[in-house]
Structures are given as C-alpha cells and as structure tokens.
Amino acid sequence: MEASAVRQRNMEASSADTVRIVSRRMVRPSHGAMPVQPSEDIHLTPWDLCCIGMEYIQRGVLLSKPTAGGEMSCLVDTLASSLARALGRYYHLAGRLAVEEHGDRTIIVPLRCTGEGAELVHAAAPGVAVADIVGSVYTPSPVVWGFFPLNGLRGADAAIVSLPVLWAQVTELADDIFIGMSMNHSVGDGTSFSELFNAWSAINRGDKRMGEMVSTPARVHRRWFVDTSPVPIPFPFSKLQDVVQRFELPPVREGFFSFSAASVKKLKARANDEMAAGAAISSLQALLAHLWRAVSRARRLPPVQETLCAVTVGCRGRMRGIPADYLGNAIEIRVAGCTVGEILDNGLGWTAWQLNSVVGSFDEAGVQELKKLMEEANDGTLTPMLAAAAPRSSSRCRSSARCTVAPAAAPRPGEAAPAAARQLGGPARQLPLQVVGPARRLPLQLLGPGRRLPLQLGGPPR
C-alpha cells in the first residue's frame, strides 16, 4: 500500500470519531543569529539504513491544559515558534529523504537538508479524558494512535512520496493536552529524538541555558562509517519500494505497567543479595529480569524451551569516533538466552546477571570486533554490511551466524562472577521476546509543571 494511502487510512480510522484535526502547518527552521546552512546531503550509515524499514519513533507527554479557553491557539503558535528555533539548530530534521536511482539496479537514499520544515498538527479530542486512557490496565489503542499523525508509516515511505522526517501533534483533550512527536528512525535513534524534544521544551520555556546552544548549529554531518565503507552506501535494489516488507500483525491488546521507585529498589536489592559480592546488578537489569521471568511464567512455557531477552546498548561513549552528542543511529542490540527452567529455578539475581553480562560484554574489544566485521563484509553494496550491523545473539552458549561477544555462564548464587568470554560461530536464532527496557524519561516541561502518562504512547504494536 502506498504511503499516502496508509496515512489516510490511519487518519480516518483513528480520528473520524475521536480525534479531529483542527489545523496543520509546516514549520520551517528559524536560524536567528546562526548562519543559514546550505542544502546538502547527509549520507546514511549502515545503522541508519537498517532502520529505514521501521516505523517512525513516536513518543509524547501529557501536560496541564491552559485554563482560559482562548489560549489553545496561542499555545500552538508558541509551540510552532519554539519548534522553528529548535529546527534552526537541528536543521537536518527539516529536510527530506531522497531517492537516487542508478542504472546498475542500485539506489542511494540520502537525507537532503532542504529546510522544507516539519509538520505541526493541532488536533482536538473533546470526548477523551485522561482517565479514559490510564484508568485501566489495557490502553484504548485506536484513541492513543490518534495522538500521532504517522501510524503505520515507515522510514522508506517518507522518501518514496517526499514526506517530512519530523512531525509533531498537539492534541487538546477534555481535561489536559497531549504533545506527541514522530521522527523517522533512519535519521536518528531515541537519544537523538530525546535531545531534540528536550531542546524544543527548553526553548519554549525560555530556558536561558539554551541561549548559547541555539546560536550554534548541531554537528549533524558527523556520521560514523567504517574506514572501508563506500560513502554513500548503495541499496542493491532498483526501487525503494522493494526494500520494505509489509505484513499484518494479529490484533493484540496493549497494556502498560508502572513500577514505583520503592518496588524497583526492592528488586535491585533482592537481585544483588542473591548473587556473590562484586556482581553489581543495576535497577534496570533487576526490573528487566523480573519482567523476563514473569513473561516466561505467564506463557507457561516448558522448562526446556529456550527464551531470549534483547537489550539495547548505546554506542555513544563506548565506541571511539561516536561522541555523546552524535545525532545518528548508534545502538546495538544484545541478546541473552537460556532455558525457561533456568531463569525460573535460579532466581532473580541469576537472571539479572545474564543481562548484566550481555551489556558488560560490549566493551572496546567487542566494538573493534564489530567494526572488523563490517569492514570485512563490505563488497560495495549494503546487504552484507547490514548483516554485520544487525542485532546479534550474545547468550552464554550460542552466537549469531557471524560473530558475537558472548558472556560466559553466569555464576550460581554464592559463586564468584567470571569474566566474560567470547565465542564465534553458531546458528542464528529467532527472537520471540524482546524487552528493551523502560522508555527514556524525557525531562519535558513545555508549559511548566505537567503530568506524565505512566506509559510510552506510540504507534501500533510491532
């Protein structure tokens, strides 16, 4: 289905009865004292191109509604003005993905810094209250999807029909407002998304600390490639439409669970108490281990069945050449695996240690191994480089088809924690379960003190 048809179908399905579009506008960068950046291309890395078939990143926050009825239009104007200033710094997000077709049955997909802008949507859902969304375990998904304008749209669709890579929507509810943002995953990851969203928030609040930042363009052209990589990287397809595989998922009910700080603290203490001294389990690892065990138990899986848990590992600060302010995609997915019987019988601490080892194995040696793989895989086209950059299994006993950094078996309670070991070869495995950790909390206050929904609102479940 063409991207325009997908967008129209989702807008009709989610908005016809609940969410009504009030207005749309294209917000172009406001450079202020910054020099206007030339229209040039940013070439996408293998990590970026891996995400071109994914749906847009979609996140948002719930904030207090203006008390005066006439303030909504003024609020939207203010948000548009501050978004324009944010785009002045992150000017690449006002550009468009382009498609260059070559005669050798390959295509190039650059991000073209055209300055055409991001789309800002003002919507209203007067019949929806906050309680309707958070009042039960299950989320009213069609209503929530209406808070975002791009459900079902994939990164490649924006290049095929020339759509913005960044969208925002302000939805007026019965008792509050919801501000959501959608970003094409091929131009950045969650860290890049959060940086832009927080900058928009700070500018809108008049945060003086943003003064120096918004006067300097972000270093958006600094993309990480291995030394032997072609730049740009060609897709071995004659049409971009051939790159994306579309499929329908069976209907599911979405639910979100929140954990208090006290509960997480207890889980962390319990996990560390079950392990030997020196096995430092983090709060996140303890929580993910608890979820992993709970899901396995709820599914009533046989003890001998293998179960996998994937965690995202950020490359910023772990890989040389990828600084903290890197604005492209810079994440690796590591996978821990063991049998259902092992994680249920050995306890929370042992299960958390599986995740601890997976994250710990992504050290500089592992990074160099990944870089070497990508260099050796390069044959001038994208396919083998994507295979090298793709998520790999990092369990204690197996690895992916090419290479992995695999931790050694976790210690039993009371044993010393061994150093991580590396293992090459072995068959690739499917990932029936992916737990990527709790959503990043965006320290946003666009309008002053606001409330956050205890959930990450996004598109249809994948």
UniProtKB/TrEMBL annotation:
The protein's name: Acetyltransferase
Pfam families in UniProt: Transferase
InterPro entries, alphabetized: CAT-like_dom_sf, Sec_Metabolite_Acyltrans
Keyword Transferase: yes
UniProt keyword list: Transferase
Domain of life according to the entry: Eukaryota
Segments forming a coiled coil: none
